[in-house]
Amino acid sequence: MNQVSYRATNSPLGVSGTFAIGIDIGGTNTVFGIVDHRGDIQYRGAISTKKHLLIDDYINELYDAVLPAIDQVGGLDYIRGIGIGAPNGNYYTGTIEYAPNLNWKGIVPLTDLMTAKFQLPSALTNDANAAAVGEMMYGAAKGMKDFIMITLGTGVGSGIVANGSLILGHDGFAGELGHTIIIPEGRFHPGTKAKGSLESYCSATGVRLTALEMLENGKEDSLMRNYAKEEIDSRVVYDCAMQGDKIANEVYEFTGQVLGKALANFVMFSSPEAIILFGGLCKAGDLLLNPTKKAMEENLLPIFRNKIKLLFSELKEADAAVLGASALVWEIKTVG
Amino acid sequence: MNQVSYRATNSPLGVSGTFAIGIDIGGTNTVFGIVDHRGDIQYRGAISTKKHLLIDDYINELYDAVLPAIDQVGGLDYIRGIGIGAPNGNYYTGTIEYAPNLNWKGIVPLTDLMTAKFQLPSALTNDANAAAVGEMMYGAAKGMKDFIMITLGTGVGSGIVANGSLILGHDGFAGELGHTIIIPEGRFHPGTKAKGSLESYCSATGVRLTALEMLENGKEDSLMRNYAKEEIDSRVVYDCAMQGDKIANEVYEFTGQVLGKALANFVMFSSPEAIILFGGLCKAGDLLLNPTKKAMEENLLPIFRNKIKLLFSELKEADAAVLGASALVWEIKTVG
Question: What CA–CA distances, in Å, run from A85 to A34, A82, A192, A262, B162?
Answer without folding.
Answer: 14, 10, 22, 25, 22
